[in-house]
Amino acid sequence: MCLRFVYCAEFCRFTARCLLSMIKHQLAQTSKDVEQRVNTVLEPSQSVYNQTLKISDSQMELQNGQIKISERIDEGMTMLNESTNKLGEEMVSLRNKAVEIEKELEKWEMRCL
Q: Rounded to whole angstroms, how far apart are CA atoms 100 and 93?
């Protein structure tokens, strides 16, 4: 019986080693499969990420350009308002001068008659 026990224990150890070896092999194969799948997905994902960064940069440039255009429009509108106001003031001044000239002409006409 003792020999049988030893034989049984050795057989169990051998079986356990075989099972462990098979499990290690299966784990290694599964790990390689997962690595291949990850690599298959990784490259397109990196490409998409890089394109996303480029799109983000482009959007920032567009926003900055829109801000600059808006500022220029505001500056132009301010300048246009100032010019319009100055033109209005000059027109009033010219009208007043024209009225004064007309009055002077009327005075000269009266003197000449």
A: 11
Rounded to 5 degrees, what are φ and ψ at 95?
-60, -45
pLDDT (tens, 9 = 90+) of the chain, 113 residues, equals 565 655 677 777 878 888 888 999 999 999 999 999 998 898 899 999 999 999 999 999 999 999 999 999 999 999 999 999 999 999 999 999 999 999 888 888 777 76
CA 13 to CA 45: how far, in whole Å? 46
Neighbours of 65 (CB within 10 A): 10
* Angstrom distances, CA of residue 31 to CA of 21, 23, 27, 44, 103: 15, 12, 6, 21, 105
User: Which three-class secondary structure state does DSSP give residue 113?
Assistant: coil
